[in-house]
């Protein structure tokens, strides 16, 4: 990804769902931030515990804690970007920071990095996500062709976590299914399998969610439904029981 790091501050915070907190962050250094990067990701750099300032040198002896987040929106006039943080589900450096974040708090933004999905020429798409990657789906839905058949599965554990996406209403062939379940390792896989059974052509599959679920669906798509590997774009956004630093969580 781009190594450019921009200092920023929190402009506003909004609890948009029980497990999602939306932060608008701004900076004059965003004046050259690319405008077409909804759905791409950035690295959010945070202050060390007990500090206000952020270490922006990525090669420092004690670099800032950082996590990847997907861009929800970009405002090139006011030089802000909007990010959604998953909160109230687990403990971690970024979630704990976001839960307490308030206007004026300092952070830094590195990136943006490349979009995971860059093929918008297919006629059939299957997209699978959870709250950690919902903004990737939000960004891609605005770029996929209106003529394409698009099936989206988004897993949430609470009906109140269903949020509005910036879909294009004219794209009537794009179907979004919010799957509310406490057993995603079973129900998400089952729903993906049902859709794969129904397709008459090989879809392009985009997945961004928990690592074990990604692996299960990828193996299923390849072994049972003969989906070519090059038509599967997947990213394990997180791993059950392990934090982003590879440490076991309780």
UniProtKB/TrEMBL annotation:
<feature type="domain" description="FAD-binding FR-type">
    <location>
        <begin position="3"/>
        <end position="119"/>
    </location>
</feature>
<dbReference type="InterPro" id="IPR013113">
    <property type="entry name" value="SIP_FAD-bd"/>
</dbReference>
<dbReference type="Pfam" id="PF04954">
    <property type="entry name" value="SIP"/>
</dbReference>
<dbReference type="Pfam" id="PF08021">
    <property type="entry name" value="FAD_binding_9"/>
</dbReference>
<protein>
    <submittedName>
        <fullName>Siderophore-interacting protein</fullName>
    </submittedName>
</protein>
<dbReference type="InterPro" id="IPR017938">
    <property type="entry name" value="Riboflavin_synthase-like_b-brl"/>
</dbReference>
<comment type="similarity">
    <text>Belongs to the SIP oxidoreductase family.</text>
</comment>
<dbReference type="InterPro" id="IPR007037">
    <property type="entry name" value="SIP_rossman_dom"/>
</dbReference>
<dbReference type="InterPro" id="IPR017927">
    <property type="entry name" value="FAD-bd_FR_type"/>
</dbReference>
<dbReference type="InterPro" id="IPR039374">
    <property type="entry name" value="SIP_fam"/>
</dbReference>
<dbReference type="InterPro" id="IPR039261">
    <property type="entry name" value="FNR_nucleotide-bd"/>
</dbReference>
